[in-house]
């Protein structure tokens, strides 16, 4: 091979791919401070280096463990609740059974198994759809469901589902993964919190020019002390608005679980988690899960604006009301001590009120047509 066959200098440099952190830094250097919402969208969904597009987040070897990954009982109780919703809707045939943001597909597998056992005619009437933005996770989910013998198709967003039949939709830890914005109270009013570069070229938080009018504060919140942080998420509101619009028009029900709060308030809840520990959200773009607490009051207000019936609960209340203890008892009956201990541990993690337990920290929003309940 002669010299002329090797890559040119230009081709060689194209092999050296910039890290996501360097690309974000370059973008800030060129265009100025970046909004937190844009930073989060790049970190989670950049096609080459995004967290959900390229990493394996879930489980003991990953970064965090979600409720369906803790116990099959979570998906089973969701499935049983959906059977109740479908019956109250008048057992529509056909209808769309959807999960948005299905992760590894565990919740969908567990809930479908329960629906098929309790109400085979419901499963027959269901057009099963998984709504997943990450192509990599679509593949993981398809494999998981194929193993479980469950037929479901994939779409990348809700708008790809024809609005022609009732929609029964669930999601766990979906809303907290959607981008949000922060505003800081300054002497001059609210200013948007942004990501910028410090003198050493590191990513740091700063105050940008964007502002928000006091009139747009969530109801019940008043302008407050200097330094207070307000979080809002037009993306979360828009998704809830789209779902509620469909439920109001075509009928259906929605059930969402997430880390968050029911009362509006101030505070910085931007959070990064990697390898089961909190991390600095700016330290390793694309390598940590980024979330903020979900404002359930805002989601509820959006759903109610479509004249729908909304119930908010803690995850602990919801699971206990739907028979968590009875299900654990049935699964453990006649089993060895080790199995019973494991089940007790799962109940505790899903529904307990301790700081490392999900019962109080996670909330549930359940949305139904106004006439059914
Ligand atoms: N529900 C799963 C995974 C939660 S992680 C579980 O409980 O284990 C968040 C999931 O939402 C991931 O699958 C992520 O890729 C997906 N996701 C994030 N934003 C999304 C969007 N806008 N549309 C669809 N899926 C999205």
Total of helices: 15
Largest pleated sheet? 8 strands, mixed
How many beta-strand elements?
Answer: 16
Structural class per helix/strand content?
alpha/beta
The percent of residues in helical segments reads: 25-40%
> What percent of residues are in strands?
15-25%
* Quaternary structure type: single chain
Q: Which segments are poorly predicted (pLDDT under 50) over 5 or more consecutive residues?
A: none
Bound molecules: S-adenosyl-L-homocysteine
Integer average pLDDT = 93
Distance between the termini: 77 Å
Q: What form results from the Cα inertia axes?
A: globular
Q: Cα-atom Rg, whole angstroms?
A: 23 Å
Summarize the structure.
The protein is of the alpha/beta class and 373 residues long.
Give a description of the structure.
- This protein has 373 residues and is α/β, with parallel strands linked by helices.
- It is built from 15 helices and 16 strands.
- Strands 2, 3, 4, 5, 10, 14, 15 and 16 form an 8-stranded mixed beta sheet that branches. Strands 1, 6, 7, 8 and 9 form a 5-stranded antiparallel beta sheet that branches.
- A hairpin with a 2-residue loop joins β6 and β7.
- α6 crosses α7, α10 packs parallel to α11 and α13 runs antiparallel to α14.
- The chain is globular and about 65 Å long.
- The structure holds S-adenosyl-L-homocysteine.
- S-adenosyl-L-homocysteine binds next to α5.
